[in-house]
Amino acid sequence: MDWQTANETGVEQHSLRLLSLYRTMLTIRRFEERCNYLFMQGQIPSTLHLYIGQEAVAAGVCSQLRREDYTFSTHRPHGHAIAKGVSLRSLMAELYGKRTGCCKGKGSSMHVGDVAVGAFPAIAIVGANIPMAAGAALAVKRLGTDRVVACFFGEGAANEGTFHEGLNMAAIWSLPVVYVCENNLYGASTPFSMVSKVTQVADRAAAYGMPGEVVDGNDVCAVAEASGRAIARARAGEGPTLVECMTYRQCGHSRSDPRTYRSKAEEEEWAKRDPIERLANVLIGLGQASQETLAAIEREVSAALDDAVAFAEASPSPAPTETLEDVFVLSGEAN
């Protein structure tokens, strides 16, 4: 389907899909903004790696996945979790360190997820999720299912050994995994151009015998189309694909990042490509939504976040004895 236009018989369905993408992106944006405020107020412990500006990648990719498909995320995981269906209540409770959190208050910001909706708890070690995604894809292939695994990572992870090992493994075994590189131009504060002679991460796909594609990561429709092709290919047993989404985080690498390594002019230029504003303009331009419709979605998202915060604040903290639960004993006898 062409996500930018619709034929006469599919206008209503097309509109609903675009509105769903808009709602997902707006939910991610407002969740991140609320978390940033709560962190500054001292309500959320640990640190935050915000996803503001990159919402089109998570929304576009996950819109093409089924509930039973799997995702593997990074230290910047909130957007992926929301797009895959992890509840706002359990996400917020996790950030508060509460027992009702999606990981029982044990994971915090960098380790959110819910296997019940196919979102494996995020992995904060850069690049570590790449071979793990291949392992999950091998499992679903050997089990004879048609599940697909989507693995998100930044361009900085493309220089880790796990990137090369994971992609090679996925390629030689034709595993049903889609590797999604969220290229936001900087690995923490280091420009990708300083650490790679290859301009695009997707160019490396050829070395492993898999397709590679570069897409505008701030255009949710383009992301949905590209990832949809890759997911369909994986589900058909044709192996992995590397999709590189060119995007930009509108915030720092983490809450302690002053962003002195990039110019205000650069930030202002990328702000003009804001993925949420772009889709809003498409919806209004095609006559598939009005300002009133978008305002209503804004109110609904705000109410859902109010509810999530209230739930988190009212939830109990884990008991000290719970630190001994959900622990795998590697040697000796289990208690």
Structural description of this entry:
The chain is of the alpha/beta class and 335 residues long. The chain has one domain: 3-Layer(aba) Sandwich (Rossmann fold). The chain has 10 helices and 7 strands. A 5-stranded parallel β-sheet has the order 1-2-3-7-6, with helices on both faces. Strands 4-5 form a two-stranded antiparallel sheet. α1 runs antiparallel to α9 and α2 runs parallel beside α7. The radius of gyration is 20 Å and the shape is globular. The termini are far apart. The N terminus is likely disordered.
Task: Map the helices and strands.
Layout lengths: L10 H30 L14 H8 L7 E3 L5 H7 L3 H8 L33 H14 L6 E6 L6 H12 L4 E7 L2 E2 L2 E2 L20 E5 L3 H16 L5 E6 L17 H8 L3 H11 L5 H24 L21
Parallel strand pairs: 1-2, 2-3, 3-7, 6-7
Antiparallel strand pairs: 4-5
Keywords, separated by commas or semicolons:
single chain; 335 residues; alpha/beta; Rossmann fold; five-stranded parallel sheet; two-stranded antiparallel sheet; 7 strands; globular; disordered N terminus
